[in-house]
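Hi W.,

Here's what went into the run:
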Amino acid sequence: MNYTQYFHHCLETRNSFLCTGIDPDVDNIPAAFTKDVQGIYEFVRVIIQATAELSAAYKFNLAFFERWGWRGWQVLEKLVSEVPGDILLLADAKRGDIGNSSKFYARALLQELPFRSATVSPYLGSDSIIPFIEDENKGAFVLCVTSNPSGRELQEHGANKPLYIRTAELVQGLNQHKNLGLVIGATKPEQLLDVRQRFPSLPFLIPGVGSQGGGIETAVEVCRKNGLGLINVSRGILYPTEGKFPDNVRKSAENYHQLFSIKDDK
Amino acid sequence: MNYTQYFHHCLETRNSFLCTGIDPDVDNIPAAFTKDVQGIYEFVRVIIQATAELSAAYKFNLAFFERWGWRGWQVLEKLVSEVPGDILLLADAKRGDIGNSSKFYARALLQELPFRSATVSPYLGSDSIIPFIEDENKGAFVLCVTSNPSGRELQEHGANKPLYIRTAELVQGLNQHKNLGLVIGATKPEQLLDVRQRFPSLPFLIPGVGSQGGGIETAVEVCRKNGLGLINVSRGILYPTEGKFPDNVRKSAENYHQLFSIKDDK
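Here's what came out:
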């Protein structure tokens, strides 16, 4: 299966656009786990057991592993090798470089590690994106409109055309293998709808739902319009404010799984 | 010493803006080294022995280590702990994220590892830069005009003002601790001179000299104008085309060390 076929397969198996974000932070994990890299490992294993049936994808945030140095990378490697099949493994690494550096970043995530897709930052242009999409069995999501307030400082630059539209044009032009998508935050519903309308063929990875307060309805709507898409929830699933762990994690994932269903059940 | 004082100290000790770029690639290292992560470790140790007296800074390119997974990170950790004092350690990681992710990327490089500075990608705005510069003893260089041809795809976006000028304005506005600088490629001499004139207070990290063909004179001129600056050479020092290893490495570094001298000896 090429990337697009596999992406479809993962979504249809779960009947949901739910992507569970793996952002393990020792300041937030239950007290039963040690506050070190071993505690992180054991915590994420339980999270995966509780959510694997409900998640079309796992988005591993590399910052939360690199913060532990090489031991964090070692734990990341163990964890991704343990994820059950039929779940799209996405490296949220936001890498972006040129030449051999770009090739090696892609290789680290998509060949040395079993990730199927990765997030890429576009500031350096096509050179930073191409190594991630040369293999039609792998893919990437390029940062377009991010969920943070300061995202607009550069992303809205341009009197006649905001930069994020230029970014989307660049991505569309590179998408020969149909394995590229855009990262657009749920906190920016107007841009979500605008980019959806202008670039109907590009799948979205949508963070910012839940703890960050982004609107769920618009996120689901734009994913349904394309057919491919992922709506990410990290803290809202990993750290529920009530209930007994890990039942509360499962319950929270069930809730988002239902909210993000592929078919409109209304 | 805060970051600026330390930066000055490293430059003055060597009387040169030379930054040696550590981009170790098994396809290019001498046959005496094994083509694995251990060979990389031993190769870089010899490079450091041959160039430490001549380099004001070492720029470690993280892609070339991550490509080996956690073992690459382990070797990186060993190598940076062995670099002699009085040399500015720079992590060329081009990270860029928001919130806790941004904090953890900064922590990984500037606290867990002994890097004094790092390269940061600005697409996500201030949120991606601030965690790297909150400690006035540490610093960062933000991507502005990159040396690759496709850099202009987004960096020159904007009818009235190119994005790279907006990036430089953003960086200048965040530079309360005087620990920020810009990455501008030597392959773009017009932009180097333009940004130098508009933003006289920001130090530059200048890649693209040597193998990438960028002009040396302009690079040296804009560094001398500010007083702080780094001109990076990676392949031109690590992989000389002639001579016996490692004497040829030393000789090449001596050449660049002289070309990049802080004071004009003419």
